[in-house]
Amino acid sequence: MPRIARRTLLAGLGGAALTACTGSGGRSAQPPTTDGFEASGSFSPTPVPPVTVNAATGPVLVPGAPLRVVVLDTDVLDSALTLGITPLGAALPAADTGFPAYWPASRTAEIRRVGPAGAPDLEAVRLLRPDLILSNQARDGDRFDQLRELAPTVLSQTTGAPWKANFQLHAQALSRVAAGAAFVAAYQKHAGQVAQALSAAKLSGQRVSLVRFTEGGGIRLFGRQSFPGTVLADAQVARPDPQNVDQSDFEVPPDQIGRADGDLLLYATYGDPARAGTDATLASPAWQALGAVKAHRAFPVDDQLWFQGIGYTGANFMLDELQRFLGA
């Protein structure tokens, strides 16, 4: 499978969503779909009725086809943009200096930052007059009552490993169920193609290690029950024994950096590389002794994509990068 340019991939994903909202042969199909689109892809003048979604906090009545959306974590940012909704406001992790680069600037330029994820500026949210707020309990469970005074608020329980189920919740809340199904199908097809390419190149057995350096969080290795871990599993890629575990991630001290070794090692930094320990670790004899490093098979990756993307668009780009790193 040839590598996919980001612009081409985004265009293809958009086409998948549009296909989900069109009639057969391109002819108009009536009535409008439950996603609030006419068959032509334009917004229907017919009001979309409110929808009750089963969020982590219980049933939430949300307006049909909401447009004034505020997202308070990176997973819901990916979901909204993937489903064709440009949020009015978004909260990003405190150390992020801008929106994820895997989205073109044209998609994020008009989004206002409303403070850091986990501590949003509620007054900034209020001023945007949202008709829907999306987040998760891990980030915003302690301010749920305050948020729902501003707008109907849909929280998943957590983020990360359950990203696929969370996307279904987001699609329902955004009245984009059909488009969401198209993106799921496109991703599954893409993952299958990558797995097939790796198998044909006899690379499926290559053990891929995932390492993240974080300010205040040390060196973290990622297991199967994490967002990037599930994407690797979808591509049928092997993992090093220490990371082939049913947990999200775990911290290791610098003197145990050997547990990060693999046939391919992908690492990212959240925050400043000096304060996160990246610089010191990469210069250490223990890091230099890793088999992946000695074989020139250790590569930095974008933290906002690999560890914060947590959605179908991010996952599609990761699959393509994985194939490139492995050389299939």
Into which percentage range does the β-strand content fall? 15-25%
The total count of strands amounts to 12
- Measure the end-to-end span: 8 Å
Secondary-structure-based class equals alpha/beta
Query: How would you spell out the order of helices and strands?
Result: HEEEHEHEHEHHEHHEEHEEHHHHEHH
Runs in which pLDDT lies below 50 for 5 or more consecutive residues are: 18-42
Largest pleated sheet: 5 strands, parallel
Q: Helical percent range?
A: 25-40%
Mean model confidence by pLDDT: 89
Structure report:
The protein is α/β, with parallel strands linked by helices. 38% of the residues lie in helices and 17% in strands. It has 15 helices and twelve strands. The protein has helices spanning 6-20, 74-82, 105-108, 122-127, 137-140, 144-150, 163-173, 177-200, 227-234, 273-276, 278-283, 285-288, 291-294, 303-306, 312-326, and strands spanning 51-55, 58-62, 69-71, 89-92, 112-116, 132-136, 153-156, 208-214, 218-222, 249-252, 264-270, 298-300. The chain has a five-stranded parallel beta sheet with strand order 5-4-3-6-7. Strands 10-9-8-11-12 form a five-stranded mixed beta sheet. The protein has a two-stranded antiparallel ribbon with strand order 1-2. The longest helix has 24 residues, at 177-200. The radius of gyration is 20 Å and the shape is globular. The termini are close together.
Q: How is this structure best summarized?
A:
By secondary structure, the protein is of the alpha/beta class.
Topology:
Blueprint: H1 6-20, E1 51-55, E2 58-62, E3 69-71, H2 74-82, E4 89-92, H3 105-108, E5 112-116, H4 122-127, E6 132-136, H5 137-140, H6 144-150, E7 153-156, H7 163-173, H8 177-200, E8 208-214, E9 218-222, H9 227-234, E10 249-252, E11 264-270, H10 273-276, H11 278-283, H12 285-288, H13 291-294, E12 298-300, H14 303-306, H15 312-326
Parallel strand pairs: 3-4, 3-6, 4-5, 6-7, 8-11, 11-12
Antiparallel strand pairs: 1-2, 8-9, 9-10
